[in-house]
Amino acid sequence: MSRALIIGAGGVAGAAAHKCCQNHEVFTDIMIASRTKSKCDKLKESCEEYKKKVGSGTNIETAEVDADSVPQLTELIKSYKPDIVINLALPYQDLSIMDACLETGVDYLDTANYEPEDTAKFEYKWQWAYRERFKEKGITAVLGSGFDPGVTGVFSAYALKHEFDEINYIDILDCNGGDHGYPFATNFNPEINIREVSAKGSYWENGGWVETEPMEIKRSYDFDGVGVRDMYLLHHEELESLALNIKGIKRIRFFMTFGESYLTHLKCLENVGMTSIKPIMFEGREIVPLQFLKAVLPDPASLGPRTVGKTNIGCIFTGKKDGKDKTYYLYNVCDHRECYNEVGSQAVSYTTGVPAMIGAAMVLTGKWKKPGVYNVEEFDPDPFMDALNKFGLPWTENRSPKLVD
Ligand code: NDP
Known about the structure:
The chain has 14 helices and 18 strands. By secondary structure, it is an alpha/beta fold. A hairpin with a 3-residue loop joins strand 10 and strand 11 (227-233). It binds NADPH dihydro-nicotinamide-adenine-dinucleotide phosphate. NADPH dihydro-nicotinamide-adenine-dinucleotide phosphate binds next to helix 1 and helix 13. Residues 146-392 form the Saccharopine dehydrogenase-like C-terminal domain.
């Protein structure tokens, strides 16, 4: 019997809310609260239909909240009395929601680390700074419980627990082989997505960061369920926490696939200044070009019915077991159309929303309940791995994968 407050009503929140209804023994009550209440109500309608299919009795309420406002959040939390707040708004809201959780003594979970709106630089330092205060208050914060970050961290903890004595190298490969039929669209929030891919790349090696130009390092990989795709090295937030938490690690890299058309459009938008986050004056008012671009691009939540193909996201580990060299690849293949038919969202939202629900269930059932602020790889991976199989993200092992050079 638990109550969860979901903040946000976009693509990821949509998948998570449906999955909370599926896991109705844990989530007896949920509230969907976001800036635009009509989106919460629409999502509730879809969840009500889904509940009939899965035989769920989860009670759903909706509310309007500005998650930048700690007083508004605090008031909502005090009136709804959730056992956990699942933050599926944007990374900019992480700290205000954590502040409200601290004030009300409620557990917290998110899928993306904080970044200030005016500097496209995401790192954990702002959220890790809450550790002592969460500990003192006796509440748990789980950071980054989506797929990447999220499942990639759980995969790493699982590999270390069961397969290796020591992991030396991790390559995280994120392949989206889906096609939505638009010349250019992003699979999740365009502002966050474009900030991520137009930033400099970097990877962790021998105790420090190696920086690259954006898209400088390119490789090809043959993905199970998708086929051969070009992928590019990016900085990604879980590199920072895994470098600390996976002992013995010498190098961690993150690669994401992009099609040629996506990259050509992005280059053009960059060249004309549309991806800039520096405010400019336009017809007497200040606008941020990237936010304007977001307004004219397709809403990621609308891509669901159009997207076909599969995603394949996973980690290739190289290390040692019983004194011998070993490689091990753990990944999930997810089908866009199947996700849409099940919960009304495409696979990128699904692969993020399902782990958000699972992470919250881990806290609510006491399996991941420990006061403080933690990344997912700091908890026992086993119950989470079981839940992935049960709730729609089954994983596959390969003990002789092709390595990335
Ligand atoms: P969307 O843009 O589809 O949804 C964001 C939602 O947050 C919208 O409903 C939006 O409301 C709401 N919101 C934004 N600002 C506020 C505010 N101030 N107060 C209240 N609500 C607000 O994004 P996604 O669903 O695609 O992504 C959600 C999160 O998931 C992001 O943080 C993203 O970075 C993360 N993510 C993580 C991944 C992972 O694997 N770990 C992968 C993909 C995404 P409105 O509709 O009014 O704008």
